[in-house]
Amino acid sequence: MLAIVEFIVILAIGLVFYYQKQNEAIIVYCAHDAIFSEEILNAFEQKTGIKVEPRFDTEATKSLGLTNLIIREKEHPRCDVFWNNQTLGTVALKEQGLLEAYQGDGYQRIPEKFKDPDGYWTGFAARLRVYISNTEQLSASKESIEQKLAGPLNEVAIAKPLYGTTLTHYTVLCDAWGLEGLKQWHQSLQERGIQETSGNASVKNLVASGACVLGFTDTDDYFVAVDEKQPVAALPITVNEQVILIPNSVAIIKGTKKRKQAELLIDYLLSAEVELKLAKSQSRQIPLGDVNWEQVPEEVSKFRIYIEKAYPLTNLVKQREITLAWLKSEYLK
């Protein structure tokens, strides 16, 4: 009889512990802007009852900062799911053995070129790297932009390339041109007086205000200026006739104690529902999986043609390491 009572007590304690674990918040490190991502994460909470505790970082360093934080915490990980606003940092985490593979329903609907073949990370909801021009001073034609970039650059802006999508941009150029070719291009920009800013949003602000006539930025920041009715236009940046299309990415962190909840969140983030929400949001992310394109805003659907023209990012880990090491030697002396 005593043994039965002990068994019941142990079972009860186990059930209490299990349900407590189920009710614990899943920790999400999120590099996508809080103004857009919190709405998505809140909707997941309401649908599933699973609590989400997001951690964000600063505008200038958020993707690199959160990537480095995951690396520092590798012995005792706090993060369960990493929602990165790009892919290269996530790919680097896979190479260091810090991710767990998962190929659920969401993974299946994303094209092969935007996900890890083994399921360690998956891309979704992308943005384009673009030239943004002030249309009161410069047209957004290829000819006008090329002419502007060939001369003095004191009216051209770019974010510091140590972080964010400008780091991705530089990594792509390193892959396409080699490190020496990238160095020469960068040095030419510096010598001709290009204005460096803290981030893509600052580039957008300089061009929208007319302080600069041209800048390197992303479609999400460009659309902020459009919504503010600023005189701006955008033209995709091309490298070897391909565009720099930068997806968000999501991955499970190795060592999570909330694997099931993490899988549910990843399937939700990779759903057509979320890609449509992000397409309709102010950031105007470009869906990568199958969606009803009639529901996608026209200003986003016009970028659909570039999905097939995307420069491949999956195998650029070494190029990113080389590029980042060189940039640190330039900027962190």
Task: Describe this protein's structure.
This protein has 333 residues and is of the alpha/beta class. It has 2 domains: 2-126 and 246-306, Periplasmic binding protein-like II (D-Maltodextrin-Binding Protein, domain 2), CATH 3.40.190; 150-244 and 322-331, Periplasmic binding protein-like II (D-Maltodextrin-Binding Protein, domain 2, 3-Layer(aba) Sandwich). The chain is 46% helix and 17% strand. It is built from 14 helices and 12 strands. The chain has helices at residues 2-23, 34-48, 62-72, 88-95, 105-108, 142-149, 164-177, 179-191, 200-209, 219-227, 259-269, 272-280, 298-301, 317-331; strands at 26-30, 52-55, 81-84, 99-100, 122-134, 156-159, 195-197, 214-218, 232-236, 238-239, 242-243, 245-253. The strands form 2 sheets. Strands 1, 2, 3, 4, 5, 6, 7, 8, 9 and 12 form a 10-stranded mixed β-sheet that branches. Strands 10-11 form a two-stranded antiparallel sheet. It is globular. The termini are far apart. Residues 2-22 have low confidence and may be disordered.
According to CATH, the fold-level topology of the largest domain is D-Maltodextrin-Binding Protein, domain 2
Distance between the termini: 73 Å
CATH homology superfamily name of the largest domain: Periplasmic binding protein-like II
Count of the separate structural domains = 2
User: How many strand segments?
Assistant: 12
Strand content: 15-25%
Element string (H = helix, E = strand)? HEHEHEHEHEHEHHEHEHEEEEHHHH
Q: Please mark out the parts with pLDDT under 50 across 5 or more consecutive residues, or reply none.
A: 2-22
* Molecular shape: globular
CATH architecture of the largest domain: 3-Layer(aba) Sandwich
Structural class: alpha/beta
CATH class of the largest domain: Alpha Beta
Annotation field: number of helices: 14
Radius of gyration: 22 Å
Whole-number mean pLDDT: 91
The percent of residues in helical segments reads 40-55%
Major β-sheet annotation: 10 strands, mixed
